[in-house]
Amino acid sequence: MYNGGKIIVGLVVFIALFAFPFYYNIGKAMEKPEPKTDTPAILQWEKEHGKKECVESKEFMRSEHMQLLNDWRDSVVRNGDRIYTNAAGKQFTMSLQNTCMNCHSNKKEFCDKCHNYMAVKPYCWGCHIQPKENKS
Amino acid sequence: MKIVFPFFAVIALVLLAFAGVKVANLQFLFGVIIPYVAAATFIIGFVIRVLKWGRSPVPFSIPTTAGQQKSLPWIKQNKLDNPSGTMGVIGRMALEVLFFRSLFRNTKTELHEGPRLAYGSEKFLWLAGLAFHWSFLIIFVRHFRFFMGQVPAAIQMIEGVDSFFQIGAPLLYMTDVVLLAAVSYLIFRRLAMPLIKYISLPADYFPLFLIFGLGASGVIMRYFAKVHIVGVKQLVMGLISFSPVIPEGIGVVFYIHLFLLSILLIYFPMSKLMHMGGVFLSPTRNMPNNSREVRHINPWNYPVHVHTYEEYENDFRDKMKKAGLPVEKE
Amino acid sequence: MATKVTTPKPAELAESIKLIPPKTEWMDTPTEIKPGTFCWGAKGKNLGIVEFPNARDWNPSEEDWKLPENWQEIFLKGMKDLLGKYRSFQVFMDICVRCGACADKCHFFIGSGDPKNMPVLRAELLRSVYRNDFTTAGKLLGKLAGGRKLTIDVLKEIWYYLYQCTECRRCSLFCPYGIDTAEITMMGRELMNLLGLNTDWISGPVANCYMKGNHLGLEPHAIMNSIEGMIDDIETITGIRVNPSFNRKGAEILFVTPSGDLFADPGTFTCMGYLMLFHELGIDYTWSTYASEGGNFGFFTSNEMAKRLNSKIYAEAKRLGVKYIIGGECGHMWRVLTQYMDTWNGPADFLDVPVSPITGTRFENAKSTKMIHVTEFTADLIKNGKLKLDPSRNNDLIVTYHDSCNTARGMGLLEEPRYILRNVVNNFHEMPDNTIREQTFCCGSGTGLNASENMELRMRGGLPRANAVKFVKEKHGVNMLANICAIDRATLSASMDYWVPGVRVTGVHELVANALIMKGEKERETNLRGDPLPGKEGN
After folding, report:
1. CB pairs under 8 A between B and C
2. Cross-chain residue pair B309–C290, CB shorter than 8 Å
3. C159 close to C31: Cβ distance less than 8 angstroms
4. Smallest Cβ distance to A21: which of B59, B228, B240?
5. Average pLDDT of A33-52?
6. Angle at CA C264, nearest 5°, toward C261 and C270?
7. Domains of chain B from N-terminus onward
8. Cα distance between the two ends of chain B
9. How close B66 gets to chain C, by Cα (Å)?
10. Furthest-apart CA atoms within chain B: distance in Å
11. Cα–Cα distance measured from residue C345 to residue C211, given in angstroms and rounded to the nearest whole number
């Protein structure tokens, strides 16, 4: 007794599962996300300061923004401390809505770009009110 | 030796990836070529190994029966531990593959003065094994968010459940903790239990260290030395669409992680890790105990030289007649 | 060969068990072939009778095993052949993860503390050779990949430990992949037989069984004499003269039992039980002197040898023109009948599906092999109220039940004998859960290890079973160990005397016959053993 049929079926299922990503994405080419930093507030900032800048460097923000926001929340909500001093010694008010979203008023074109790409669902908006542009 | 060698082998692999990317800038080798080679080796090697098993037949029906057989109608059969039909076998195999039924039986034998033997329940190996395999599976499934353009709701749901406690940012996955804890226990028991240490080979330590390294590098890049995750997905999507790209600034930990995974995939088909496929082909588990009811066929059954009744009677005819036994030939 | 081997006293033996492995790695720890733990080598004459290769006299304790020049080649070629013939062997060589779940499940390990008796390590002895010669990793990396060259010392070590395994499959029960050491031992012994490395205690019975129809080498008239003696005893006890037939054509049923039951106490009492039961039922059955062995020592030799011996059962059933076969109480016999016979020597299309002539029950579970277990047959009788039983005749007995490895884990015959016991004795107590049913412990002497020169090994292997009996002896006063295996009846008697003196051993059908009220019997004064029945002690 070889049970050849069952073994082949098993192998086909195995290959189908492991090769799944290879054929699942065919014809569903996905653009590399390009978060937009061209809101009026940012352009204004660039005009005034000669460059675009955030509270920390772009590289730092790219990988650590979630940690930063988490720290901000803890600092504000639990300690009532609203002042953030960045690496360069500059101070900012810790506020998602008044600091972050003031510049990045384009949640759809900025936050959601990468979050959707990576299938990340931050729970910022569980408490905070989403910017109006999303309601349309 | 048998512990030190695999340990340093894994360390060396980590250093190799580190130096290859950080010093020699071989991102394309570590990010594209090796992963392709690994994936191909894994799939092809796995299939070849299973086909090799498949080429050997199962000449006899040899289930290990672990409960009451099907016999008289008023005796209750244990249909899962001693199945007599296909449904029972599927049930038995499902319990075995999904919940490690046999290992769940595990006991610990103690010899006391007297002598007096005692058998206690011993579930740690079962628990650690189950925790390890299930968390590995969930982590694997979770990784599909890197492999799919549109991430299905089901995978997002698994992630949601896995990070249910919303600890830290990014959210802590329970499976990350469970996997590392389980692997640590599995390493620990090989080192701490004298008998288990005695039977362990380098081939037992190597995959444990490797998987620990794989898990640890994953944890490090998620929680500590974070990498450019959008770049990671771009790289992965490039790989699976066969148009590889190396995005800038991903971070070396990712390459270490990917390299350890590649080594695991290459190592898999030639190692004991093939128990993943083998468990399905184990004749003591995947056969119904119905060999008295349905004849099992052995493809290489061949005629053998037997001592026939005729020869026997020839040897003993006189004695048989004298004893009053009937004979074929007078 | 006639060296006297002394067996240590129980206390000494127990004291010597250390479940701690040696300091050196197992591959670097040489194996010493110790007297008392191995069986004498096969005689060339016996291997010659069954046309085995490299037949010669040899002695395991001598340096020179008189192996053929190209023994390595033979062994490795044989291994390759078996890997191609048995998926079990191939898969079990590849997938063990050495988790150690099996380690303390083996009665030989528990009783000896020898780490090479852990099932995983027993398999690794052979697996290391497999890795070295059959896997790429092993060929390239050698020892680092767990490979080991097949040297003469490795061969001797493998041989030594293959004959310290009773193929009981207890380890297989706990293995997450169902790796069955019995399979590995069977393959290993098959390889050893290519080199003529069998034991005297196995090859002798095999040659006997091949030529004379049974392991004991009883010739036709001797079988009849032995049963005649039992018939006389039955008459003395019950006043009834049973009248069995032999080699009778046209009988409805052929009855086959292990020849141990024909020859030695306490098996003979079980045999008397069959004779009395079948007589009382008045069924149309016959014994055979040609197929006078249910057991199969060929099974401990090679697949082919087992098939050659087993072939007699169907051949005789066909010659005699019976409708179906009933098999007696035996362990490995029933592993063979359940999992091998039909495949080897079937289809038994010349027989009918067994139907009890008394109850009309059709044994659907044996509709292909056409062979039923005598406890299935008797349990059905009792359930249908066909037997008049007086269990109080067994009241002097406090009984526990030992599941044979093979009927438990190779068949699942668990409830049938228990049902019978509960109906024929009033005092029945189970041993602890981890030692019965599918978790049962081997008697310690199966697979042809029931010789006398390896008594120390047998007593070591018998410890877990004996210890469980001791437990119920102390707790419930158990004085009788019932079982359905001829080897058990012989070997448990020895291990009880050694570890738990005062407990005797019986087959289930001896107890049935004690309780059975036969039509026209005289008032019984004694049981089948001649012991006075309870209440008749004064007579």
Report:
1. 310
2. yes
3. no
4. B240
5. 91
6. 40
7. 4-299 (1.20.950.20), 306-330 (no CATH)
8. 75
9. 5
10. 100
11. 19
Answer yes or no: is pLDDT of A134 > 60: no
Domain ranges of chain C: 10-197, 206-515
pLDDT computed for residue A29 by the predictor:
65
- 3-class DSSP state of C65: coil
Over the range C107-141, which residues count as b (16 or more CB within 10 Å of their CB) and which as e? bbbbbbbbbbbbbbbbbbbbbbbbbbbbbebbeeb
Q: How confident is the model at residue C405 (pLDDT cuts 50, 70, 90)?
A: very high
CB C93 within 8 A of CB C130: yes
Going by the DSSP 8-state scheme, the letter that residue C199 receives in this structure is: B
- Dihedral sign (CA C161, C162, C164, C170): positive
* Residue given tokens 């109080």 in the structure block: C392
Residues C238 and C514: their CA atoms lie apart, in Å, by 10
Residue B323, token pair as written in the block: 């004893």
Domain tally, chain A: 1
Residue B326: the pLDDT is: 95
First to last CA, chain A: 65
Cβ count near B227 (within 10 Å): 20
- Spatial CB neighbours of B87, under 8 Å, sequence gap ≥ 6: B79
Q: Which residues of C touch B320 (CB under 8 A)?
A: 220-221, 247, 289
The whole-model pTM stands at: 0.94
Q: How far is CA B204 from the centre of its chain?
A: 13
Burial of B302 (0-12, 13-18, 19+ CB in 10 A): exposed
Distances (CA, A) of C163 to C26, C159, C260, C451, C453: 18, 6, 21, 12, 13
In a domain, A16, yes or no: no
Look at residue C401 and give its three-state secondary structure.
Answer: strand
| Beta-carbon separation of B115 and C17 below 8 A | yes
Instruction: Count the neighbouring beta carbons within 10 Å of the beta carbon of residue C306.
Output: 23
Task: Give residue-wise pLDDT tens across range C199-215.
Answer: 999 999 999 999 999 99
| Alpha carbons B251 and C285: distance in angstroms, whole number | 83
Among the ranges given (A114-123, C284-293, C469-478), the one the predictor scored with the smallest mean pLDDT: A114-123
Nearest residue of A to residue B61, measured between CA atoms: A1
Q: Which residues of chain B have pLDDT under 50?
A: none
The token pair that represents B150 in the structure block: 């549109």
pLDDT exceeds 90 at position A121 = no
- Give the domain extent around A103: 33-135
Give the pairing type, strands C253-256 and B116-121. Answer: unpaired
Q: Is residue A17 part of a domain?
A: no
Partner residue facing B309 (CB), from C175, C177, C316: C316
Structure tokens at C194: 């290519």
